[in-house]
Amino acid sequence: MTDAVPLLLIEDTPSLQMVYEAILRGAGHTVCCASTAEEGLRAFLENDPNIVLLDLGLPDRDGLDLMAEMLKLRPETAVIIITANGSINKAVEAMRAGAFDFVVKPFLDQRFLGAVDNARLNHRPATAAAPDPTPLGDFVGSSTAMAAVYAKIHSVARSMATVFITGESGTGKELCAQAVHDNSNRARGPFIALNCGAIPPDLLESEVFGHLRGSFTGAIADKLGAAAAADGGTLFLDEICEMDLGLQTKLLRFLQTSTVQPVGATRPRKVNVRIVCATNRDPMEEVRRGRFREDLYYRLHVVPIHMPPLRDRGQDVVAIATAALRRLSEEEGRRFRALDDEVSALFCRLPWPGNVRQLLNVLRNVVVLNEGEIVSRAMLPSDLQHGLDLPPAANTPEAALPALAVESLLGRTLAEIEQIVIETTIAAEDGSVPRAAKVLGVSPSTLYRKREGWMRNDAAE
C-alpha cells in the first residue's frame, strides 16, 4: 500500500539522492526530491508530505533548523533523519527535538524502507495539550519527580524513539518500560523483557537472537530469541551495560538493519521491534571506561528517562507502602490497611538504599510476622526501629560515606584522603560520577580529571 501524499527526500549528494529515490520508488512510494534546504522547504509547503527523509548535512542550512521549522508548520509530519556514522549524536539530538527515527549511512535497503513503513503505520502526531502527569500502569505516587516521568512517558510512547531508562536498583525501571509499551501503538504486540545481567555471557547471544538446533553443544532444539519474539512489539533490555562488548557489536547491527540472525543460521530475518533499555550504572562513565560502545550508546540513548530514588519522592513512599500493605495483607490473609503516623514519618525520612524493592520486603516481613490493622513502629524489623536516629539524608556528603570512619584517615596524606572520599562517594552513588559530583559540590569534569590522573599514576608505578 502506498501513501496518497508523496514522500519528500532532501539529500544534497546527487548519487545518493538517485539511489534513495530508486529504492523508494521500487517499493511503490511516490517521491519528491530536493537537494538543498531552500528547495526542501519549498517542496514541503507545496506537496504537504506525511513523511520527510532529511539528510542533516545540507549545504545551505543546518538540517536541525530545517526540521524544527517543518515541525512548527506541520507537527503531524514524520521526519526520518539520514546521517553519517560520525554524526549519530546529532541525529539523537534530532530525535529529542521531534524526529520520528534515523538511519545511519551506509544502510541496507530493508532498514531504509523499514523506517518509512514504521513512520507510515505507527506515527501519530502529538496533541497540543500538555501530557497527562497522572500515574501510569502499576505506578503509585504523584510527587513532582514522578509527574515528570509520567509526562515523559506520555510524550514518547507513541514514537519509535529508543528509550533509555536509568536509575538505582529497585526504582521501577521495568515498570517504566512496560508503561512505555502499554501507551504506545504497539500495546497489542508482545512485551519481551531480558535481563542482560542475569544471563551468562556465553548464552546471552542465543537469548537475544536465538539459535538453530545443533549450532552449539546443548542446542537440542531451535530457539526463538527475544528480538524475534518481540516482533511487532517492544524488546526491553534491562541492565544493558552488563552486555559483553562482542554482543554489543551485534546489537548495533541489529538496530541498524532491523534484522536478526540466530546462532547457526545463514540468513537473517527481518523484524519490527521497538527497543527500550535500562541500567543502574552511569552509561557515559561506562563508555569512558571502554565497557560500552560509544556508537551503541548514541544509538540507544535517544530519549532518556531517569527514575528517581524513593528518598527523593516525598510522600510517595507512604502511598506506595499503603497500596502494597493492602495487597500483601490480602495475599497473606491479614487485615492490615494503613501505617500509623510515626511509621509514616519514619518511612519519609529513611534513605531506602534498596528503593521500592526494599520497602516491599519490609512490608512483607511486617505482614507475615504480625497481626492487626495498623502498622506500628514496634512491628518493623529491628534494623528499622531506630530509624529516627539515622544520619543525615542520603543526598548529603555525610550519608554518602557511611563506612568511612575518621580514625581510618589518620596518618594518610591529604591527597590520599581526597581520593578515598571521592571513590567512596562514587561507589555510594552506584558508580555515577555526576551524582557523586553533586554530593561533593564539584563539577563532574573535576572528578573525571582526578580519576584519570590516579589511573596514570597507577600505570606509571
Descriptive account of the structure:
- This protein has 461 residues and is α/β, with parallel strands linked by helices.
- It has a five-stranded parallel sheet with strand order 2-1-3-4-5, sandwiched between helices. A five-stranded parallel sheet has the order 7-10-13-6-14.
- It is globular, with a radius of gyration of 26 Å.
- It has helices spanning 14-26, 37-47, 63-73, 88-96, 109-122, 144-156, 173-182, 201-209, 226-229, 245-257, 283-288, 294-300, 316-332, 341-349, 355-369, 382-385, 397-400, 414-428, 433-440, 444-460; strands at residues 7-10, 31-34, 51-55, 78-84, 101-105, 163-166, 191-195, 210-211, 223-224, 234-238, 259-260, 269-270, 274-279, 303-306, 338-339, 374-375.
- The chain has four domains: 7-122, 3-Layer(aba) Sandwich (Rossmann fold); 144-306, Rossmann fold (3-Layer(aba) Sandwich); 310-389, Orthogonal Bundle (Helicase, Ruva Protein, domain 3); 397-460, Arc Repressor Mutant, subunit A (Orthogonal Bundle).
- Helix 1 links the parallel strand 1 (7-10) and strand 2 (31-34).
What gap, in angstroms, lies between the N and C termini? 67 Å
- Please tell me the CATH architecture of the largest domain by its name: 3-Layer(aba) Sandwich
Task: Give the CATH level 1 class of the largest domain.
Answer: Alpha Beta
Strand order of the largest sheet: 2-1-3-4-5
Total number of β-strand segments? 16
CATH topology of the largest domain: Rossmann fold
Annotation keywords:
461 residues; alpha/beta; Rossmann fold; Helicase, Ruva Protein, domain 3; 4 domains; 5-stranded parallel sheet; 20 helices; globular
